[in-house]
């Protein structure tokens, strides 16, 4: 029965043999394992030519689904009006299943109905309803739309007849493509008398009837690109005269105002341009605008995700740099520990040598004690030399301590300079990032404002750290100057003692500490670096120079 009715409404010949053949494998129920949809697509929908009554087809579909889905609560609209709202929903709904009508299309439909009723549009009321709707779902189903219009929420103060007429007017415009309708006078072709007719303007045809009930149709005016509309001067008491010239006939019509023939001329122009009806073109533009906004929103979300990913990568890089700094600090501490251990070993070795020297000196004193009185003057001179030797040891110790202090201050200053360079590079990098951020579009500025504030705070913190490093560097320079002065004083003392010892060189030869490595002179003074340290620093300078280039 369903298939036969579909074929009748769609003007498709019904083939009962194909129906029986399609469902022959099912002996237990009315629908085979293949389902009804393959049969519907293959034997009915593929044969549709488009020359069927779409209203009757919609009415059949309405009959199939209305009883099951239509709300049982009383509505302010009739079943016929509910059917028209259902058909309008199918026209305005999105092209995806399950069908829904988005808030923008709901606003468009309610505005059309309100304008047809002659009432004022309550934008604030709809905005509150739209906010409540967006929090729960993307749109309304057909039955929810019928409940919304039937509840009278947006038609308060209007009677059922006014609402029904408004729905019918919107239905005629959106579904039946009625661009304009009303009474006009038409001049007959044979009697040449003027008769009042009810004209209905559609995109490609003008139909005229005896009255507005559309029961007695008198004829059609077929519109195409060859038609034209010409205005005529007023005569015989008739105003707003115009001609509709077609290929086979010419129609002379008198209207109550000029908007009638202007609407007809606009329709002819649309036919010549091959454009769709205004309401369909407007629906397509609204749909394209929604798709564009959705694409822009998706693009914005994608950019936000990229920015978030970039931020996470920066955090990872900072964490890696922090770990590298910690590892470098650990290596430096290990090297300092090894250096202290080496220094202790050298001090122990030097103490042993001093102990052996004391033993030799005691033996010499025992031998000298056994000598005669003529050697008393010689012993006195030996005692003076021993006293000078002790003072020379103290001077050497002061010089060694001064050199150690100078080395410590020099390393501290080098570390501060490296940290200052790293901070300056980081500040320049943040400054470049801020300049790139400023060049972004105004839409991106609003989204990145919070990140800019965070970076500015980080920049301020870095500036404070840089100032702190500057102060530490100045303090290190002051310490370096003090140590340098001490070193110069110790060197002068050592030189004066060496001059004094030179007079007694024939009696005793002093043991002086010295290095087996070649004598190195740098900008920090003599022997400020070992040869290994100079090679390491030269490699570091070459690497930094290659990176900057």
UniProtKB/TrEMBL annotation:
It comes from the Eukaryota. The keyword Phosphoprotein applies. Keywords: Cell membrane, Cell projection, Coiled coil, Cytoplasm, DNA-binding, Membrane, Nucleus, Phosphoprotein. Residues 279-500 form a coiled coil. It is found in: Cell membrane; Cell projection, Lamellipodium; Cytoplasm; Nucleus. One of its GO terms (molecular function) is DNA binding. The keyword Acetylation does not apply. Gene3D superfamilies: Pleckstrin-homology domain (PH domain)/Phosphotyrosine-binding domain (PTB). It holds the Pfam family PH. Residues 177-294 form the PH domain. GO terms for cellular component: cytoplasm; lamellipodium; nucleus; plasma membrane. The SWAP complex consists of NPM1, NCL, PARP1 and SWAP70. Phosphatidylinositol 3,4,5-trisphosphate-dependent guanine nucleotide exchange factor (GEF) which, independently of RAS, transduces signals from tyrosine kinase receptors to RAC. It also mediates signaling of membrane ruffling. Regulates the actin cytoskeleton as an effector or adapter protein in response to agonist stimulated phosphatidylinositol (3,4)-bisphosphate production and cell protrusion. PANTHER family: SWAP-70 RECOMBINASE, SWITCH-ASSOCIATED PROTEIN 70. This is Switch-associated protein 70.
């Amino acid at each position: 029965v369903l298939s036969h009715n579909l074929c009748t409404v769609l003007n498709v010949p019904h083939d009962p043999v194909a129906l029986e053949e399609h469902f022959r494998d099912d002996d237990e129920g009315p629908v085979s394992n293949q389902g009804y949809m393959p049969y519907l697509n293959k034997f009915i929908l593929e044969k549709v030519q488009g020359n069927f009554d779409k209203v009757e087809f919609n009415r059949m579909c309405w009959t199939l689904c209305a009883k099951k889905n239509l709300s049982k609560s009383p509505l302010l609209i009739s079943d016929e009006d509910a059917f028209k709202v259902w058909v309008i929903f199918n026209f305005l709904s999105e092209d995806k299943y399950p069908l829904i009508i988005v808030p923008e299309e709901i606003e468009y439909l309610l505005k059309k109905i309100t304008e047809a009723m002659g009432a004022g549009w309550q934008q604030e009321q709809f905005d509150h309803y739209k906010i409540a709707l967006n929090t729960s779902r993307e749109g309304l189903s057909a039955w929810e739309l019928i409940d919304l219009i039937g509840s009278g929420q947006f038609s308060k103060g209007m009677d059922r007849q006014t609402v029904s007429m408004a729905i019918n007017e919107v239905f005629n415009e959106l579904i039946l493509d009625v661009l304009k309708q009303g009474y006009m006078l038409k001049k007959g072709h044979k009697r040449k008398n003027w008769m009042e007719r009810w004209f209905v303007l559609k995109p490609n045809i003008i139909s005229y009837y005896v009255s507005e009930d559309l029961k007695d149709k008198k004829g059609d005016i077929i519109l195409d690109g060859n038609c034209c509309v010409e205005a005529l001067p007023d005569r015989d008491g008739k105003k707003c005269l115009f001609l509709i010239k077609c290929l086979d006939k010419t129609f002379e019509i008198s209207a109550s105002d000029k908007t009638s023939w202007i609407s007809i001329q606009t329709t002819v122009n649309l036919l010549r341009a091959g454009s769709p009806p205004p309401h369909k073109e407007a629906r397509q533009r609204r749909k394209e605008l929604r798709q564009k906004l959705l694409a822009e929103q998706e693009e914005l979300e994608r950019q936000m995700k990229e920015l978030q990913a970039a931020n996470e990568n920066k955090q990872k890089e900072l964490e890696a740099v922090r770990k590298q700094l910690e590892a470098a600090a650990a290596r430096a501490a290990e090297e300092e520990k090894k250096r202290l251990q080496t220094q202790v070993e050298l001090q122990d070795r030097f103490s042993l040598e001093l102990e052996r020297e004391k033993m030799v000196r005691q033996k010499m004193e025992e031998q000298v004690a056994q000598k005669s009185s003529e050697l008393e003057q010689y012993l006195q001179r030996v005692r003076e030399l021993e006293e000078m030797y002790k003072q020379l040891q103290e001077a050497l110790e002061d010089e060694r301590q001064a050199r150690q202090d100078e080395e410590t201050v020099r390393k501290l200053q080098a570390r501060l300079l490296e940290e200052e360079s790293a901070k300056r590079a980081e500040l320049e990098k943040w400054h470049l990032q801020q300049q790139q951020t400023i060049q972004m579009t105004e839409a991106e500025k609003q989204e990145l404002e919070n990140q800019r504030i965070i970076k500015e705070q980080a920049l301020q913190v870095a500036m404070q750290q840089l100032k702190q490093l500057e102060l530490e560097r100045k303090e290190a320079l002051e310490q370096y100057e003090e140590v340098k002065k001490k070193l110069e004083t110790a060197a002068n003392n050592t030189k004066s003692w060496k001059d004094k010892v030179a007079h007694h060189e024939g009696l005793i030869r002093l043991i002086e500490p010295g290095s087996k490595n070649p004598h190195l002179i740098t900008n920090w003074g003599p022997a400020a670096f070992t040869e290994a340290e100079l090679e390491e620093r030269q490699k570091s300078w070459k690497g930094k120079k290659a990176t900057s280039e």
